[in-house]
């Protein structure tokens, strides 16, 4: 026996409408504030720091490192951390140079007389 799905049965539940259309306060969120964003950023940074500490502690075997004629031994985790920080410094220097260049161009464009 087949039933017609288009006709409602007495025990069928009514179809609900979208909650945001029925009650606008149902989906409203607390406004994003600077303090809230700072807490989220602090929490993420703390989790990354914990992961970094675990990584350094797990990679404590000594490796020989040679750089510019100097050589020595250092824990592997520390060597990788120093390399990562050095790479970050290089990227930051390049970013600062580019931002400075863009600001200089914007200032030059703003102060130069416009040509017809």
UniProtKB/TrEMBL annotation:
Pfam family, one: LapA_dom
UniProt keyword terms in alphabetical order: Cell membrane, Membrane, Transmembrane, Transmembrane helix
Membrane spanning stretches: 37-57, 77-97
Sequence segments annotated as region (Disordered): 1-29
Residue ranges constituting the Lipopolysaccharide assembly protein A domain according to the UniProt record: 58-109
Listed InterPro entries: LapA_dom
GO cellular component, one term: plasma membrane
Amino acid composition bias (Polar residues), ranges on this chain: 17-29
UniProt name for this protein: DUF1049 domain-containing protein
Lineage: Bacteria, Bacillati, Actinomycetota, Actinomycetes, Propionibacteriales
